[in-house]
Amino acid sequence: MNIKDLDKKYVLPTYARADVEFVSGSNATLTDDAGKKYIDFTSGIGVVSVGHGNKRVADALCNQVSKLTHTSNLYYIAPQAQAAQKVVEASGYDMQCFFANSGAEANEGAIKIARKHGERDGKIKRYKIITLNHSFHGRTITTVKATGQESMHNYFGPFPDGFVYADGIDEIASLLDDHTAGVMIELIQGEGGVEPQDREKVQKLAKLLKAKEIPLIIDEVQTGAYRVGEFTASQAYGIEPEIITLAKGVGGGVPVGIVMTTLKEVLNAGDHGSTFGGNFLSARAVCEVVDILNELKESGELAATSAAFSEALENFYVAHKDIFSSRVGFGMMCGLRTKDAQTLSNIINFARENGVMVLKAGRNTLRFLPPLTITKEEIDEGFKSLTLAMSRL
Ligand SMILES: *Cc1c(COP(=O)(O)O)cnc(C)c1O
User: Fold this and answer.
1) Which pLDDT score is estimated for 372?
2) How far is the CA of 308 from the centre of ligand 1 (A)?
3) Same fold across 3-53+300-390 and 68-298
4) 225 alpha carbon to ligand 1 midpoint, in Å?
5) Residue 341: what pLDDT?
6) Is 224 close to ligand 1, i.e. is its CB under 6 Å away?
7) Mean pLDDT along residues 234-251
8) What percent of the chain has pLDDT over 90?
């Protein structure tokens, strides 16, 4: 049976898959089962930060799994401790890490920390978590409820109580009360449509929450691992949150989620855990990926790549102002708003047929999340194909 039929027969139909099957990749270039090449402006939704088939990551992982893949968190795990050090040092914050396996799971951990912190004096139960409308925090029962999108709350209830949605950063202050355990936001909403928050407003909110001793949780599952130029978007925004979650790009394709927090005393042995979290495989991946990205940042290559991508995107945008209304985002987390939402799926499909992969976000945003290692040649090639795709609209 061919792969498409096999998938249809045995895999639950939770994804509307595009009609393509990739078999290999090299940096930002993918190859399908017929040998056709594509430029990947998606990096697997912001995951393959260091490119497909990265030799350093492959060697590190082969070396690691030939020794140990997993022993459980009952024992010390050298790459986990090392990955924690690398991540904390890259962030510059005085934090400790908990290792999970996905973004949603990292956010679950963050919510648990905020809620346990909220019970600290035992008098008032602080349990409410404020999130934003149009946010995205994951697919577990709790994180789907944390997600400020009504359409995702249609089934699956009853949900855990205590999630409150603000219409924007401005509205959060008026929603705080004695029961608020935390505020969780994305600094640039990814799935919601590449929507950056205002820097000053975020700084003001962070200050207010500090004064009230309410933890600020920044969901950096998409923005983290240098996606927007700094290791975390929190650094770029000049804030010091109590909790940061990472996933997607920090493992370079190996499933991993990380909760980092300044609240080191909240969780005790037995309060939280994970069988797989931070095992030799995923932690080794984090070590290698963070090393590679640190080097890219320090050499100035990351900034140069980001500038080249922005310039190419700007040129493309200017040439297609009849279709796009604005350019949004930062660094290599960016997008173009289409004037007409209907056109967006045509663009994505024509782009794929013309050999370039792009993403949708929100209702009408064409989203770009290229590997942070994408070359100038790959950028040019990708926009050339995208321009051809536009001529078919
Ligand atoms: C992708 C994403 C998640 C969910 O991550 P999973 O690994 O799919 O669980 C959570 N928050 C944000 C901001 C994301 O972009």
Assistant:
1) 98
2) 27
3) no
4) 13
5) 85
6) no
7) 98
8) 97
- List the domain boundaries for the chain: 3-53+300-390, 68-298
Looking at the domain that runs over 68-298, which CATH code has it been given? Answer: 3.40.640.10
CB-ligand 1 contact for 195 (6 Å cutoff):
no
Question: Which has the minimum average pLDDT: 110-124, 235-249, 312-326?
Answer: 110-124
Q: Does domain 3-53+300-390 have CATH number 3.60.10.10?
A: no
pLDDT band at 172 (very low <50, low <70, confident <90, very high): very high
pTM, to two decimals:
0.98
* Distance between CA atoms of residues 247 and 233, nearest Å: 13
138 lines ligand 1 (CB under 6 A): yes
User: What is the pLDDT at residue 143?
Assistant: 98
